[in-house]
């Protein structure tokens, strides 16, 4: 199957829109830009819709021919693609928590939540 560059680009833009949504307060942008970035949460649905379509486009023929026998291979490939990035981002989160603890900064609920959202958003941009 050939890659659909337009969809890949749209997924990338949507992912970055979500990242900017989470970082909008720290960016120090104008009120107008902040209002636009405040709608970044909407890009999550768009990103997952496009991702589902691209996955379906990639595997539909195999699943149509092999039926249920194609599912284990599909799941192995998905886990092999997603799990390494998950581990890297989990390690990054642990480093942030350790750095905050070692520097004596409090781990408030708000700081944990903000750090988790930021790391989660950044990990979605991985391919």
What does this protein structure show overall?
The protein is mainly alpha-helical. It is built from 5 helices and no strands. The chain has helices spanning 5-27, 31-37, 42-66, 70-102, 109-124. Helix 1 (5-27) runs antiparallel to helix 5 and helix 4 (70-102) runs antiparallel to helix 5.
Protein topology:
Layout: H1 5-27, H2 31-37, H3 42-66, H4 70-102, H5 109-124
Short description:
The chain is mainly alpha-helical. The protein has helices at about 5-25, 30-35, 40-65, 70-100, 110-125.
Structural class: mainly alpha
Number of E-state strands: 0
Identify the quaternary structure here.
single chain
How many helices in DSSP terms?
A: 5
Low-confidence segments: none
The CA-CA distance between the termini, in Å, is: 17 Å
Q: How do the helices and strands follow one another from N- to C-terminus?
A: HHHHH
Strand percentage? under 5%
Percentage of residues in helical conformation: over 70%
> What radius of gyration results from the CA coordinates?
18 Å
- Biggest β-sheet: count, sense, barrel? none
Mean pLDDT: 80
Shape type: flat
What labels would you give this structure?
single chain, 127 residues, mainly alpha, 5 helices
């Amino acid at each position: 199957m050939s890659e659909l560059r337009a969809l890949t680009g749209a997924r990338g833009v949507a992912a970055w829109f979500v990242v900017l949504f989470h970082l909008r307060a720290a960016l120090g942008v104008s009120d107008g830009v902040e209002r636009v970035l405040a709608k970044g949460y909407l890009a999550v649905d768009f990103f997952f819709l496009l991702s589902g379509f691209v996955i379906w486009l990639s595997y539909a023929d195999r699943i149509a021919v092999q039926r249920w026998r194609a599912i284990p291979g599909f799941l192995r490939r998905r886990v092999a693609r997603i799990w390494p990035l998950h581990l890297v981002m989990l390690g990054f989160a642990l480093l942030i928590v350790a750095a905050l603890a070692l520097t004596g900064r409090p781990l408030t609920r708000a700081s944990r939540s903000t750090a988790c959202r930021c790391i989660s958003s950044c990990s979605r941009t991985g391919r």
